[in-house]
Design a protein that fits this description.
This protein is of the alpha+beta class. Helix content is 39%, strand content 21%.
């Protein structure tokens, strides 16, 4: 049994859904289904019950899931020991300087426990570079938010966070239960500098061209609203500064927390980082 096929199997067994497993594995569903059927033929047993109600593990599948997880864990430890032997004990991580996220703290603790001998070098970037230096080669992996130009990158979704409109507390719209971007069409929004990724800029301007002051950091965003009555988007989970409030925005997709790395990079420390981040952000 190939390790790659076992990874496919574990993804389907954990998601109990071929479509979600395919998304998680960054592949289409037909080759995933064929790989699982070939694995069942090789194992000589059905691993999943498939019905209109969904997918469940068979007794044989439950046994293989335990064994596959153990095999993959041992293979990962072997890769990391080899990497350490050749000196690959430093991992540079780009982080978007937008907030203190409890999930990021869980990730840091779990990764340190898993790799106590690895030195993690953090590069925090402002809101003008959502890839946190990946495109320039400044970091190995980025813990950030989408959307952005992912040319040459692999992007793995971790979580989706609802967004809201950041307003002064005395703004006429501040006491609304919710707002739509159309309600804010005639207002000045804070903007990122012109060289900023256009996909990123468009998302945080609710998909429309805007006018307003240029900002680079979360603090500057809040100060632009506080001093000028400017508006903009922020995360509902963020605690606004004194004098500000956040009103939920409808008709807006959530902000996606993602982990990204350069496509084709086989550094085992990155693979382990992605796996650990997935667990930390699902807790």
């Amino acid at each position: 049994m190939e390790l790659r096929t076992l990874r496919y199997f574990v993804a389907v067994a954990e998601e109990l859904h071929f479509g979600r497993a395919a998304v998680r594995l960054h592949m289409s569903q037909p080759p995933l289904s064929r790989a699982i059927k070939n694995l069942e033929a090789e194992a000589g047993a059905l691993l999943f019950h498939r019905s209109s109600a969904g997918v469940t593990l068979t007794p044989a599948g439950a046994v293989l899931l335990d064994e596959a997880r153990a095999l993959l864990d041992r293979a990962e430890r072997a890769r990391l020991r080899v990497a350490a032997a050749v000196g690959a004990t430093i991992l540079s991580v780009g982080i978007l300087g937008d907030s203190a996220d409890p999930a990021a703290a869980r990730l840091a603790g779990a990764y340190h426990r898993r790799h106590p001998g690895v030195e993690v070098r953090i590069r925090e970037t402002d809101l003008t570079d959502p890839t946190c230096g990946l495109h320039t080669g400044a970091v190995d992996v980025a813990l950030t938010r989408g959307p952005f130009d992912d040319t040459g990158l692999t992007v793995h979704h971790l979580r989706a966070d609802p967004v809201g409109a950041l307003l002064r507390a005395d703004d006429p719209l501040a006491h609304r239960d919710s707002l739509r971007p159309a309600d804010l069409a005639d207002r000045r929004w804070f903007l990122f500098p012109q060289h900023t990724d256009p996909l990123w800029q468009s998302y945080w301007n609710a998909g429309e061209p805007r006018e307003g002051p240029v900002v680079r950091t979360v603090q500057e965003c809040q100060q632009a609203v506080l001093w000028n009555g400017t508006i903009g988007m922020t995360l509902l989970g963020h605690d606004p500064a004194d004098g500000l409030t956040v009103v939920p925005l409808t008709d807006m997709p959530p902000s996606r927390v993602v982990v990204a790395w350069r496509r084709g990079d086989t550094n085992p420390l990155i693979r382990s980082f992605v796996q650990t981040a997935t667990t930390a952000y699902q807790s």
